[in-house]
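Please decode residue identities from the backbone states below.
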């Protein structure tokens, strides 16, 4: 995320898309903050392959969700996958100036944005959702979300629980986990993700302007995603699917 025409300075999660950010920086070093929603590989494996951050001139603050029972500094969690023999260097060997922050639920300010952080349910470690505002426009991000942890909810797809509603309420854009179709969800409700219809329902319940379906099931084709979006063309909220290179101006 960026302020106006400035370079991006606030990044949510650190998958392999960080390489694209490096290209957008045009070879310049990254100066800003990266907030990790959780520590699964698809949200962290871009870090050591991020030329904008692994740069002698970079200045990076990395927010790492504090885990239950964690002992030691925040980066000890990253070292579980980013250290020999799994990887040749540790986080401390990235070039540039890196600061590792323990990230807890609360209300924060990063890079001139107000950032609400709340814990949301997802399997396999503490998971955080984000609400980012510049004082005028608001962006909500629940990348991995298993709302059935709080019960079936009105449609059997999970509760519109307080943390989810607080993050999404009145947002201009809601980017939300939509890995499963409603037909798939009956067999996969314990996988830790949401159904497309839950993401849209939360958007309607919270009064958002647009829902961006995210965290697509890996085998899903572009044509299938187009069909999912088309099936919701008449819903009471605007629905689109996230895609590589998508730019949202809100």
């Amino acid at each position: 995320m960026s302020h106006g025409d400035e370079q991006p300075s606030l990044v949510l999660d650190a998958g392999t898309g960080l390489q694209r950010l490096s290209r957008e920086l045009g070879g310049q070093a990254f100066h800003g903050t990266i907030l990790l929603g959780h520590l699964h590989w698809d949200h962290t494996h871009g870090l050591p392959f991020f030329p904008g951050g692994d740069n002698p001139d970079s200045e990076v603050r990395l927010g790492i969700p504090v885990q239950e029972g964690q002992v030691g500094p925040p980066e000890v969690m990253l070292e579980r996958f980013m250290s020999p023999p799994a990887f040749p260097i540790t986080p401390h060997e990235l070039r540039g100036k890196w600061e590792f922050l323990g990230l807890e639920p609360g209300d924060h300010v990063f890079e001139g944005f107000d950032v609400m952080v709340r814990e949301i349910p997802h399997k396999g470690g503490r998971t955080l959702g984000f609400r980012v505002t510049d004082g005028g426009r608001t962006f909500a991000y629940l990348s991995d979300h298993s709302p059935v942890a709080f019960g079936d909810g009105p449609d059997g797809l999970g509760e519109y629980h307080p943390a989810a509603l607080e993050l999404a309420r009145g947002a201009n854009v809601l980017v939300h986990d939509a890995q499963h179709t409603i037909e798939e969800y009956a067999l996969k409700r314990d996988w830790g993700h949401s159904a497309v219809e839950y993401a849209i329902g939360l958007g309607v319940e919270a009064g958002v302007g647009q829902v961006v379906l995210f965290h697509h099931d890996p085998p899903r084709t572009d044509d299938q995603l187009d069909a999912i979006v088309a099936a919701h063309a008449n819903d009471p909220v605007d629905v689109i699917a996230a895609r590589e290179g998508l730019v949202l101006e809100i």
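Observation: DSSP finds five helices and eleven strands in the chain.
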